Amino acid sequence: MMCILRRSPKSFGHRLAMSAVAGVLAAGALSIPAVSHADDPPGRPGDVISAVPTTFDLFPGVAAPVDAWKIRYRSTDALGNPNVVSGEIFVPRDGRSATRPLVTYAVGTVGMGDQCAPSATGGPRDIGPILEKGWAVAVTDYPGLGTPGDHVYLVGRAEGTAVLDAARAAQRLPEANARGVGPASPVGIVGYSQGGQASSWAAELSHDYAPELQVKAVATGGVPADILRDAQQSNGNQANLAAYFMIAIGHDAAYPELDLDSYLTEQGRGFAQRIRSGCVVDNVLAGQGKSLSQLVIRDPLASPEWQRRLAEDRLGTRAPQFPVYLFHATNDEIVSFELGKQLRADWCGSGVSVEWHAIPGANHILAAAVGGNAALDWLGHRLAGQPTQGNCGS
Asked: Which of 227, 202, 230 is nearest to 217 (CA)?
């Protein structure tokens, strides 16, 4: 359903293994226990329901000088209903009590099982450079990771609200308030890959959904900005069943009328259950040797109902009210480079100040490393109140 479906499971699995080495996945993680939402007190989106102190480890058993809390907080699902999401808040232990910047960070694909959630794995290691700048970081697990229900994988609206409400939660956590995080904190939104979609959705929603947040900019890359278009251009080649099923399960969780089970064979329903409980590398390996025809009675993509819901994930229809740093690898083998170019065109056409960078010769993983540092440097200038012109005219 994304362009990763056009690639072989073996090559995609190898790339995901590289991501695991980089810290996207962590070994030996414990799942977060499910907690009934019925017992949660009423509140507003962004209200903290619970906060438990934890650590941020540079390496296994080596804690960084960072104060951290696992949290559960209120948010809003894709249909506008209240839900509960888990995540983490990190603040550098530097003795600072004056107002500091806050980054709400959207992680890339980790899988669908609760044990894969960022807060179950000690937090994403790639936030280290952000913390080194003295900025606080809020990380959402996204709905359905670490909380009851299926992860709404690549459902843009639900991811975007979770990213924004994580920032609200950080600002409302008293322990973070004492360390310089509060309503006056300048806010940056950061994400890549799945996190690129989530951060971009947060950018588009922020003006209406969370206008009180002092969002100064978004830095986003490798964005799957139009899932339906990418699926249609794949010409029906579902080489990667993990991605196909993760997207299908995620959208079925967000929109129950899609009734995914009615499209699946008995073997397909078993495979879907395995995907629901697995992390990303395990899910890719689980799809090897299987074909879509074994797993589905009919293709959901041929259904107008599925097409409509996938089309709702398209980015570029709303203009962020602040500058954007957008980057994409020209040789991206996971998320089509054309999607990044189109998102740039859409936002530029809406009058957004876009700093666009195509990273020549890079693939999806390399671009995250090459483009990420430059994006954070750019973001630092915006959080400090410095203006930017963008390069839409070039």
From this structure: 202
Question: Amino acid identity, residue 135?
Answer: W
Cα–Cα distance measured from residue 55 to residue 177, given in angstroms and rounded to the nearest whole number: 18
pLDDT tens, position by position, 62-114: 889 999 999 999 999 999 999 999 999 999 999 999 999 999 999 999 999 99
Token pair recorded at residue 80: 């506008």
pTM tops 0.85 = yes
* Longest CA span, the chain: 60
Residue tagged 């689980």 (tokens): 286
- The set of residues, in sequence order, having a beta carbon less than 8 Å from that of 180 and lying 6+ positions away, is 91, 96, 97, 98, 99, 100, 136
Strands 214-221 and 324-329: parallel
Closest CA to 69 of 123, 114, 106, 105: 123
**Six-digit token string for 283:** 């899910």
φ/ψ (deg, to 5) at 60: -50, 120
CB burial of 296-333 (b: ≥16 within 10 Å; e: otherwise) equals: beeebbeeeebeebbebbbbbebbbebbbbbbbbeebb
